[in-house]
Write a structure and sequence with these properties.
This protein is an alpha+beta fold and 502 residues long. It is 36% helix and 25% strand. The protein has helices at residues 11-23, 40-44, 63-73, 89-97, 107-114, 116-125, 143-150, 176-191, 248-264, 296-303, 307-315, 395-408, 418-426, 428-431, 439-442, 449-472, 490-500; strands at residues 4-7, 27-33, 47-52, 77-79, 101-102, 154-162, 165-170, 196-200, 206-214, 220-232, 235-241, 269-277, 283-289, 332-339, 341-342, 348-349, 352-353, 356-358, 365-369, 376-377, 384-392, 410-412.
Length: 502
């Protein structure tokens, strides 16, 4: 087994990996930028090293610096988490060249999955249904003619894309030239590669993904599906497992397709195969995510499988402990991503110091967090600061528990998207499971920004009036322990007043 793992990441995912390493008796090495010195993952790890200044390109994306720390700390493996270098084949290769084990797929698989044009081509050849579109870089031919062949509306997507970057929706031919130029510039800035391809838009579809595990001995299984149809700008906001849209037969067919996709990509380690599902229950391959996913806890909650632990075991050369028939789904899990942003002010990022925090707990609640009281939220990194996962025997119980957990969650000093999650959970369409990838666009949450501000001001005013009324209220406590007019002891009244203020 591995002895010491360097986590090339930060925040809640770094804490998540450290916890499983501790259970396995593996020592951990954290890296941190100069502004992350007080972060939770730095406190949790056995060792921690400063990797550079705040900008990610100088710290968490600085391959040379990370590998130098790995050598100095004596680490024998590198876990990339998600984001940053997790899907970078050059980093995976550099780890191998440095004599380190990379916790993830091979550089060859990362190159295939990282180029969506190549991945589409490989999956189509493997017999998977692929959305109608181009399988070449658009400039290789006549862009306008290629778009016409695909048909409108269409999506322009970055071949090296991810995280919603380099994507443009095009309704008709007039918009195509400008959208193509914008997508190309964004792709170049985000990924250093301006290759793009075209894909026909499917409307009213759901986003379904299957968690896969593949060992070095040719065994591949899936752990069922997650649904991430509640999205904003192609980035998931809330996920659940399993999906309400799948029948047992459809789950079996999609699971088999996911395993076939993993085999076609010569995949080893944990990953996700993503599909779009239309209202006729036709599904189409979307992409392979060759890493740990943000929403992996929902699968862990319904299967009981620690996916990070399986990643580490696979990396160490162990065989999968489960066969496909051993995988059992139990109950329902929902995950809300807690982001440091204001959903009622155009999702503007929120920075500042967390002055007070109280996390939810109780039956069926799990919190994956990278924050603590006094931590400074900076503008340098992704706005994801924590995740709340609720589990229940049924979807209804998971929903109720999540609603209760969000009501309990207190984060002061910055704005978060918790109010948005509460609105989603209260939406009858979501409660009924009637969602697709346009769910958030259809809901006019942002239009309620003004009314929400009014409500906030009203709440502050009500609190002030309440405190003033309490200050002016005559004491109910007598000078001795005599029964009051309603028969209660004065001491009982005093105790209740001190406990609950009435």
């Amino acid at each position: 087994m591995l002895k010491k793992v360097l986590i090339a990441n930060r925040g809640e995912v770094a804490v998540r990996i450290i916890r499983t390493c501790r259970e396995l008796g593996i020592r951990t090495v954290a890296i941190y930028s100069e502004v992350d010195r007080a972060s939770l993952h730095v406190r949790y790890a056995d060792e921690a090293y400063c990797v550079g200044p705040a900008p990610a390109r100088d710290s968490y994306l600085n391959m040379e610096r990370i590998l130098d720390i790995a050598r100095r700390s004596g680490a024998d493996a590198v876990h990339p988490g998600y984001g940053f270098l997790a899907e970078n084949p050059e980093f995976a290769q550099a780890c191998l060249d440095a004599g380190l084990v990379f916790v993830g797929p091979s550089p060859q698989t990362l190159r295939l999955s990282g180029n969506k044009i190549l991945a589409r081509r490989a999956m189509r050849q493997a017999g998977l249904p692929v959305i109608h579109g181009s399988e070449w870089d658009v400039p290789d031919g006549d862009p306008a003619q290629a778009a016409q062949a695909v048909g409108y509306p269409l999506m322009i997507k970055a071949a090296a894309g991810g995280g919603g970057k380099g994507i443009r929706l095009v309704a008709g031919p007039d918009e195509f030239p400008e959208a193509l130029a914008l997508a190309r510039r964004e792709a170049k800035a985000a990924f250093g590669d301006d290759s793009v391809f075209l894909e026909r838009v499917l409307e009213g579809v759901r986003h379904i993904e299957f968690q896969i595990l593949a060992d070095q001995h040719g065994n591949v299984i899936h752990l069922g599906e997650r649904e991430g149809s509640v999205q904003r700008h192609h980035q998931k906001v809330l996920e659940e497992a399993p999906s309400r849209a799948l029948t047992p037969d459809l789950r079996r067919r999609m699971g088999e397709a996911a395993v076939a996709a993993a085999r076609a990509a010569d995949y080893v380690n944990a990953g996700t195969v993503e599909f779009l599902l239309d209202d006729q229950q036709n599904f189409y391959f979307l992409e392979i995510n060759p890493r740990l996913q943000v929403e992996h806890p929902t699968t862990e909650m319904v299967t009981g499988v620690d996916i990070v632990k399986e990643q580490l075991r696979i990396t160490a050369g162990r065989r999968l402990r489960l066969a496909q028939e051993d995988v059992r789904l139990r109950g329902w899990a929902i995950e809300c991503r807690i982001l440091a942003e204001n959903p009622f002010d155009d999702f503007r990022p929120s920075v500042g110091k967390i002055s007070y925090m109280r996390e939810p707990s109780g039956p069926g609640i799990r919190v994956e967090s990278g924050i603590h009281e006094g931590l400074e939220i900076t503008p340098y990194y992704d706005s994801l600061i924590a995740k709340v996962i609720a589990w229940g025997e049924t979807r209804g119980e998971a929903l109720v528990r999540m609603r209760r957990a969000l009501d309990e969650y207190r984060i002061m000093g910055i704005r978060t998207n918790i109010p948005l999650h509460q609105e989603i959970l209260d939406d009858p369409r979501f409660q009924g499971g009637y969602v697709d990838t346009s769910f958030l666009e259809q809901a006019a949450y942002a239009e309620r920004a003004a009314s929400l501000d009014d409500l906030r001001a009203a709440a502050v005013l009500a609190a002030l009036l309440h405190h003033r009324a309490r200050a002016l209220r005559p004491s109910q406590v007598q000078t001795c322990a005599q029964p009051t007019r309603n028969g209660d002891s004065n001491w009982k009244v005093l105790g209740r007043w001190m406990a609950v203020g009435r």
